[in-house]
Design goal:
The protein is of the alpha/beta class. The protein is built from 4 helices and 7 strands. A hairpin with a 5-residue loop joins strand 2 and strand 3. 40% of the residues are buried.
Length: 153
């Protein structure tokens, strides 16, 4: 994995990877956050929606928690359905290679496991909207902010 990049621009190619023989394969991207319940599923949802078949996208957590219902709601309002998100731990992905590994919280940045291959490790810092304290409306605003930040990535 290359040096850590700390910004939200993910200059992804317009097409998949060129393999020997001229075949195109999807670019493999992994989004990681602490719980895999808000930030990484939202980022993965946007890339799946807008990247279509050019990308193979996964998201995982250091300590996976159930998908947050407000994350599903705010993403549906943006036209992206993440309700079928599959909860998984980064441990389940050991031995796999990715072209891009994107950590979306400080916990994931600090504890991100090493994935083989020649990909890039990128860090996007989003507030922890899964650890909501306050009213439902305050929680919705915080998740909206995470959603909007991940769509700008």
């Amino acid at each position: 994995m290359g040096p850590l990049e700390n910004h939200h621009s993910l200059a992804l190619p317009a097409q998949g990877r060129n393999e020997p023989g001229g075949t195109m394969t999807p670019i493999r991207v992994l989004f990681i956050c602490r719980g895999n319940s808000v930030r990484s599923p939202m980022a993965a949802g946007f890339l799946l929606r807008y990247g279509r078949d050019r990308f193979e996208v996964q998201s995982a957590g250091l300590a996976p928690e159930p998908l947050h219902p407000l994350a599903v709601d705010v993403m549906l309002r943006a036209g992206v359905d993440i309700s079928g998100h599959r909860l998984q731990s980064v441990k389940a992905l050991a031995g796999q290679t990715f072209d891009f590994v994107v950590t979306v919280c400080e916990d994931a940045r600090a504890a991100c496991p090493t994935f083989g291959g020649t990909g890039r490790l990128i860090h996007w810092r989003f507030d922890d909207s899964a650890a909501l304290v306050g009213t439902a409306e305050e929680g919705r605003r915080l998740i909206h902010a995470s959603r909007d930040a991940s769509s700008a990535g």
